[in-house]
């Protein structure tokens, strides 16, 4: 990581600590914003958050690994999460999975070579009446067909 | 996403209500008045556990502390549940007005909505709604001119952990920790968020409170059954013609519900999501109520073509992934139950071992630390019992009977 990148990340975290307050309960909102902006929380970011909140870096790492929407490893620019709960499964999730994997040439859990998309499974997205459902970052798409799913992913940049 | 979810409006939750009315009415009511109406209404928590709301609020109101907190549990993670999504998106006024009533009653100055990370797309519209409330003096200082009644609501996002729907895990998460359930006692009503008295209620509970304030506890308890008063939102999905959110009085029979939603050739109904129970045809005359089939509202319907072992495997994979791992019965137990399901699938089981697993399931119900591990064996036990002809057919549960 370049020094300028480090400095800008530190600035960003300082602003967040200012915004949410220098206390332990601010940890999750801060991590969520870093995750949103960078798609993962780097070692350096973890160290800086720990320093600015005055807690041990291990505490920060421990929280990140607990929550499935927070990552300590780099991911693609867009995170795509397909619901794998039984109701979406009944409505044809497997066909959607096959179509997406074929089209992108990767399996679930992997990232495309151009770093455009990371594919993941999610548990119930609360769209059971309109499944199969899929999240692209924080946007939700429902009533997927294999064709519609591939179209959506093609429009993601 | 569809703009509007299929909905059937019942007589209680979705009855006529104008934004702010319940809050305005508070100026003529004391805390004791609200508690009295709640007591008469016999409202129980809508998250599924069914703890009497009046008792919870009374304990928090009676706790001596300068700081108290009110939390709305919108971490709707139970597979097959989406009523909170509909309430928050299409009936926000019920939820937030209910929170203000709660704050008035228990004496909280600060409230949180713990919104699950999967629902982040709702955040901006909910924030806008809160801002309008602030502008109309329905939030903020001296709400509706009531001196000394200051309250504001902050929305916090979860990050994709099912266990955070458990109230003490939710509080841990709000405090910036891993979402691991706490030992109880002390209960949140005495030591909750930051060690202060805290009330945690489900989204739907707050929505019910608003109607009790407007129309009285007497009116509310006329609906439903004696032990389960009022109505309930059911999130219906699976094999039926009209999935969606249905408001029905407690005490509705499963067969009646199946009729309403247009379910044909139904083999099984999973009541209460993955942590609930699965009933077969012979039990369709049972009623949906705290005293019979208790549920947080998830109804999943499976028709004759479905493989119940596949359904069970999906549930057990869910629990293995979502167990937080801090207590052994839940962490190891769920893995063992999943292994058992895989053995059944490949027809490499002995009845002796399956019986041992059933015992293990019962142990988990007693020994697990929080609701997750206590309820995760429910579907394993009920599916193995109610669909044994199909599952133990010697063909790995495949091809039906």
Describe this structure as you would to a colleague:
The complex is a heterodimer of chains A (157) and B (401). Chain A is α+β, with helices and mostly antiparallel strands and 157 residues long. Chain A folds into two domains: 3-66, Arc Repressor Mutant, subunit A (Orthogonal Bundle), CATH 1.10.10; 78-154, Glutaredoxin, CATH 3.40.30. Chain A has helices at 3-20, 27-38, 43-53, 57-66, 86-90, 93-104, 146-154; strands at residues 78-83, 117-122, 134-136, 139-141. Chain A has a four-stranded mixed β-sheet with strand order 2-1-3-4, with no helix packed on it. In chain A, β3 and β4 (139-141) form a beta hairpin. The two termini of chain A are 24 Å apart. The mean pLDDT of chain A is 96. Chain B has three domains: 7-221, Rossmann fold; 231-303, Ubiquitin-like (UB roll); 308-391, Up-down Bundle (de novo design (two linked rop proteins)). Chain B has a six-stranded mixed β-sheet with strand order 1-7-6-12-9-10. A four-stranded parallel β-sheet of chain B has the order 4-3-2-5, with helices on both faces. Chain B is 41% helix and 15% strand. In chain B, α2 (31-41) crosses α5 (92-106). Chain B has 401 residues and is of the alpha/beta class. Chain B is built from 16 helices and twelve strands. Chain B has helices at residues 21-25, 31-41, 53-62, 83-90, 92-106, 123-135, 167-174, 203-215, 217-221, 254-261, 308-322, 328-345, 351-367, 371-375, 377-386, 388-391; strands at residues 7-8, 69-74, 110-115, 152-157, 198-202, 231-238, 244-249, 252-253, 266-271, 277-280, 287-288, 298-303. At the A-B interface, α2, α4, α5 and β4 of A face β6 and α11 of B.
């Amino acid at each position: 990581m370049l020094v300028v990148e480090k400095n800008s990340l530190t600035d960003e975290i300082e602003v967040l600590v200012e915004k949410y307050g220098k206390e332990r309960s601010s940890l999750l909102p801060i991590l969520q914003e870093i995750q949103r902006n960078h798609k993962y929380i780097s070692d350096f970011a973890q160290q800086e958050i720990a320093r600015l909140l005055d807690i041990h870096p291990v505490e920060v790492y421990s929280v990140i690994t607990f929550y499935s929407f927070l990552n300590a490893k780099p991911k693609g620019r867009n995170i795509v999460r397909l619901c794998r709960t039984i109701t979406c499964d009944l409505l044809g999730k497997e066909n959607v999975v096959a179509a997406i994997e074929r089209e992108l040439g990767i399996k679930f859990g992997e990232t495309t070579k151009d770093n455009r998309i990371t594919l993941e499974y999610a548990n119930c997205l609360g769209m059971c009446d309109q499944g199969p459902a899929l999240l692209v970052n924080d946007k939700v798409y429902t009533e997927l067909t294999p064709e519609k799913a591939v179209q959506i992913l093609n429009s993601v940049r | 996403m569809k703009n509007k979810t299929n909905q059937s409006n019942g007589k209680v939750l979705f009855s006529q209500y104008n934004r702010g009315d319940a809050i305005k009415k508070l100026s003529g009511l004391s805390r004791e008045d609200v508690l009295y109406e709640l007591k008469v209404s016999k409202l129980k928590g809508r998250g599924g556990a069914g703890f009497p709301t009046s008792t919870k609020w009374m304990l928090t109101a009676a706790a001596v502390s300068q700081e108290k907190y009110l939390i709305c549990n919108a971490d709707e993670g139970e597979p097959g549940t989406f009523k909170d999504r509909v309430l928050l998106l299409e009936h926000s006024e019920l939820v937030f007005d209910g929170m203000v009533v709660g704050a008035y009653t228990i004496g909280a100055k600060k409230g949180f909505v713990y919104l699950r990370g999967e629902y982040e797309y709702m955040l901006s519209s909910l924030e806008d709604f809160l801002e309008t409330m602030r502008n109309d003096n329905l939030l903020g200082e001296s709400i509706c001119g009531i001196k000394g009644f200051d309250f504001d609501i902050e929305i916090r996002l979860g990050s994709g952990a099912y266990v955070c729907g458990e109230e003490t895990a939710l509080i841990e998460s709000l405090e910036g920790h891993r979402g691991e359930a706490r030992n109880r006692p002390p209960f949140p009503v005495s030591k909750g968020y930051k060690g202060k008295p805290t009330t945690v209620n489900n989204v739907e509970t707050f929505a019910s409170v608003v109607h009790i304030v407007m129309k009285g506890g007497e009116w509310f308890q006329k609906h439903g059954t004696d032990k389960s008063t009022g109505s309930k939102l059911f999130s219906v999905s699976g094999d039926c013609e009209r999935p969606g959110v249905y408001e029905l009085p407690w005490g509705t029979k499963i067969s009646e519900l199946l009729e309403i939603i247009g379910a044909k050739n139904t083999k099984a109904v999973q009541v209460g999501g993955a942590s609930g129970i699965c009933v077969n045809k012979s039990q369709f005359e049972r009623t949906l109520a705290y005293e019979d089939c208790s549920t947080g509202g998830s109804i999943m319907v499976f028709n004759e073509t479905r493989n119940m072992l596949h359904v069970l495997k999906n549930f057990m994979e869910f629990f293995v992934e979502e167990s937080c791992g801090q207590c052994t019965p839940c962490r190891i137990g769920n893995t063992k139950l999943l292994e058992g399901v895989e053995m059944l699938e490949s027809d490499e089981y002995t009845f002796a071992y399956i019986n041992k697993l059933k015992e293990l399931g019962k142990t988990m119900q007693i020994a697990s630390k929080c609701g997750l591990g206590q309820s995760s064996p429910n579907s394993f036990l009920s599916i193995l019992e109610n669909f044994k002809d199909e599952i133990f057919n010697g063909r790995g549960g495949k091809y039906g009977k």
